[in-house]
Specification:
Layout lengths: L7 H24 L8 E2 L8 H10 L4 E4 L2 E5 H13 L15 H13 L7 E2 L6 E2 L1
Antiparallel strand pairs: 1-3, 2-3, 4-5
Length: 133
């Protein structure tokens, strides 16, 4: 056996140790606020827009803290806030929509007057001088 070769038992033990250390490091990265899959949202990674996230954090919709220049909030709290908003019905106005948008009636009146033989001049646009209805 050459001096640079290790026995197979040592290599197997080192491989097990490296797998264990890798899993511990992976868990630590995911748990850290700056980790790629961590348990926190910042303004860039939040499921809503940047300004909405910062406004909601400022208003206290969910707990948030500032670390350096970043505002961080726990993913589970932000997701719970989103779920609570998704289950409530959107606000609907009790007023009824108008029967007409107003333009259809004016066009119908214009066409009826023209059909009766009366001349109705079209209004001219102030900007371009082109005729318009």
């Amino acid at each position: 056996m050459a001096s640079h070769e290790l026995p197979p038992e040592v290599i197997a033990a080192l491989a097990t140790l490296l797998r264990y250390a890798g899993s511990i490091m992976r868990e630590a990265i995911e748990a850290s606020p700056s980790g790629n899959g961590g348990g926190f949202y910042d303004a860039k990674t939040a499921p809503m827009g940047r300004t909405a996230f910062l406004r909601l954090a400022r208003e206290g919709a969910f707990k948030a803290t500032k670390v350096g220049r970043k505002v961080l909030a726990r993913k589970d709290e932000v997701d719970a806030w989103i779920e609570s908003r998704a289950t409530t019905a959107p606000h609907r106005s009790t007023r009824e929509a108008p029967a007409s948008d107003g333009y259809g009636d004016a066009l119908a009146l214009h066409e009826a007057i023209r059909a009766a033989g009366h001349h109705v001049p079209l209004r001219r646009s102030r900007r371009t001088g082109k005729a318009r209805r």
